[in-house]
Amino acid sequence: MSRLLSWMVRTGWSWARRTADIRAGSRAAQRFAAFGPGSSIAFPPATLFGEPWIEVGAHTLIGGDITLTAGMLPDLDLGPEPLIRIGDGCTIGRGSHVVAHLNIEIGNDVFTGPYVYITDQNHAYSDPETPVGRQWPLDDPVTIGAGSWIGANAVVLPGARLGRNCVVAAGSVVRPGDYPDHSVIAGVPGRVVRHYAPDSGWVPPLRSQNEDSTPLDADEATPPEH
């Protein structure tokens, strides 16, 4: 009996993973501010609420175990404008978190690895007498430019503004500030370790596949503008 029940559970779970994703035109997709054609959110999501304030573009794929939330709690009135906008042709990796309280903009063709954390809110700790978790948090909008790539386990903090075609190395923490187009950001805290200059190309130059792939020295990194 236990083996039969185990088989039934595995079969049912496999069926759900194949068929229970949120797709454009479905009842679940209609809860969103926008949900473009060809887009889907894989089953199962981890946490999903605030859909009326979330826009998903066309042909965007969002992995399973996703946390995609707008606002503090479900069923709040968050005003007339979406808090999260995810563009066309994006891929958001499995287990990632996109948590918005003010505004998160993700441009077209943005790809992320798994378990990326993007938020526009952080805890405050200015009052030394009050527990940090009970102090009113601070919000700062986040922008991720079109064509960018964010590696696995990276964290994008409130106030980060990435330009077009930026690269964030796996495990990096992107601090608040402006990061120009074609920046490569790595480290904890994240720093610009390579950038593209129209007159001279990549600085430092890109290594070929046949050259030593030793990581950049920390002295080569330049901090982002604030």
Automatic annotation (TrEMBL):
<comment type="similarity">
    <text>Belongs to the transferase hexapeptide repeat family.</text>
</comment>
<dbReference type="GO" id="GO:0016746">
    <property type="term" value="F:acyltransferase activity"/>
</dbReference>
<dbReference type="InterPro" id="IPR011004">
    <property type="entry name" value="Trimer_LpxA-like_sf"/>
</dbReference>
<feature type="compositionally biased region" description="Acidic residues">
    <location>
        <begin position="217"/>
        <end position="226"/>
    </location>
</feature>
<dbReference type="Pfam" id="PF00132">
    <property type="entry name" value="Hexapep"/>
</dbReference>
<keyword id="KW-0012">Acyltransferase</keyword>
<dbReference type="InterPro" id="IPR051159">
    <property type="entry name" value="Hexapeptide_acetyltransf"/>
</dbReference>
<protein>
    <submittedName>
        <fullName>Acyltransferase</fullName>
    </submittedName>
</protein>
<keyword id="KW-0808">Transferase</keyword>
<dbReference type="InterPro" id="IPR001451">
    <property type="entry name" value="Hexapep"/>
</dbReference>
<dbReference type="Pfam" id="PF14602">
    <property type="entry name" value="Hexapep_2"/>
</dbReference>
<feature type="region of interest" description="Disordered">
    <location>
        <begin position="200"/>
        <end position="226"/>
    </location>
</feature>
